[in-house]
Amino acid sequence: MTDATPAPQTAAPPKPASAAREIWQQFRTHKGALFGLIVLSCLILFVLVGPLLWDPPQRLSDTIRMKNQGPSLKAPFGTDQLGRDMLLRMMQAGRVSLAVGLVAMTIAIVFGTLIGTLAGYFRRLDGPLMRLTDMFLALPLIPLLLVMVMLFRDRIASLIGPELGAFTLIVFAIGITSWMATARIVRGEVLTLKEREYVLAARSIGSRPNRIIRRHILPNVVSPVMVAATLGVAEAIITESVLSFLGLGFPPDFPTWGRLLYDGLQYMQVYPERVVWPGVAISLTVLSVNYIGDGLRDALDPRIRGR
Amino acid sequence: MLDAQPQPLVQVQDLKMHFPIYSGIFRKHTGDVKAVDGVSFDILPGQTLGLVGESGCGKSTVGRAMLRLYEPTAGRVIIDGDDVAKLAPEPLRKKRPTMQMVFQDPQASLNPRMTLAEIVSEPLDEHTNWTRDQKLERVYELMDQVGLNRRFVNRFPHEFSGGQRQRIGIARALALKPRFIVCDEPIAALDVSIQAQVVNLLEDLQEKLGLTYLFISHDLSMVRHLAQRVAVMYLGRIAELSPSKDLYARPLHPYAEALLSAVNEPDPELAARRNRIILKGDVPSPANPPKGCNFCTRCPKVMDICRTVKPDLLEVEPGRLVACHLYTAAGSTGASEANERNQQGETR
User: Fold this and answer.
1) Is B110 on the interface with A (CB under 8 A)?
2) Is the pLDDT at A171 greater than 50, yes or no?
3) ipTM associated with this complex
4) Shortest CB distance from A198 goes to which of B108, B140, B156?
């Protein structure tokens, strides 16, 4: 097989296969990942399309009579202490929570990977960037967010409206305070990768640093980044609810899953389902994102893909 | 004879590669690891220079510093007319296609996430603006040249055997039609039957493409087979540089003698009769080499002068350069030899 054979002219040599299709095929074989993808899609459909289909008429006079009801045909998830339909609130809350979770995670991952790669690859940047990371790690999160919200909430709200303003601020605040772990992980990984011989080979070819980073470094730090990312989604959703609970996030009448959870907490002994719904939704999101990340990590690794 | 000598393709002059040591709380620069400490040699076009020595003597560092994978501390590396050690980044990048490298560990030198086609065409991506089809055509051509089946083009490195992986490494090195290739122990990680295949492939390619090799190895018999001239390194310096026939027949430097006596002798009768020179002690630290000759701590023929004066690499017989006081101290102490580092036997 390894002997030098004359060029086989008979069969046309295969064209390089499409990587995307191979990745998808491997992804499909990962049952958990497929399950996670389905669950997450359902959740997204639920929060996006749901409110269009389920829009119970709410008259102010009804709300007093409707309060604190258990699950029924009229209100499948029951109603809360103000007579609002829980199903509708769950759907509206999910929009915000999912968006916050995914966007904040993306910001944190992109930023963390960028800082980590630069620090790991360019020796000169290593010191300053890592000290910056340490500084961010040392900052107490809650006071920092407090100051940020105090300073910027009104200004941003006047620019793009209170709800979008709160969303932007929260996503930014969470993103900017949760990239440090990723940066450290990525830096460590880059430090070992850049001494590998294939990086040396790329340098001997004359590749420029940006291409070496894109072709050789980044694809090989995917695994740890995936893990950090999937954990990040859960963390972002929870952080958002903490912020809202402290009155730093969205306004109190604006539902998010975290908010619903805290609202339900007071009535947990009497109406446990109010805690269960948002809790289940958050857990399902986190779980499905975790599995998707797991499957994606495997699918992106050709060594595992072959098996 | 003067005119008949072709210009060397590669000239290395007094190459030094020192790695700084920082220590203490303030990370003060307290010394240097002198991995390569003044190495000079020439390689004629189409020839192979073997570079041998024990582990840690700086062989690989020489290869890497020559291709500017490390920034050399001092010295000149003239490859095809340009001093690679001093080129600015952009001219250096343009120069890269003429000089390539084959790495020791074929597993480690191929990115596990790239297919064969991607790996081999990477140099083409970097230095040409060909279309995909042109690149693919060249990849197939290279695969034929190194004896890889065209069907393997979409496979990943982990799907190949060690020998095949090394072929991929060679194909990648050949992609840009280099003139000079540094083979950094290309066969050390392969088992013996595959070693022969890879060495034969390297020889064939040299013949067909007129390549010039620097063949770094610790496998002395392989170097004997492949190289016209051999440099023996010890602790960052060249101990002896001789035509391989002469070196293997009658090594001059005591270290070369000891090293060659360690080569396995297939004939049991000869093996029983030959006297193996066993060196005592350890290699001194390259951070703190001996004051005189680097080999003086272990040399069986050590003299007083060896401990104080570093011997220069001088031509002691036609075409043979040795850095040892045994050959210089005897006759020519006063007459400063004019032909220092003049390796082709020519008088320029």
Assistant:
1) yes
2) yes
3) 0.79
4) B108
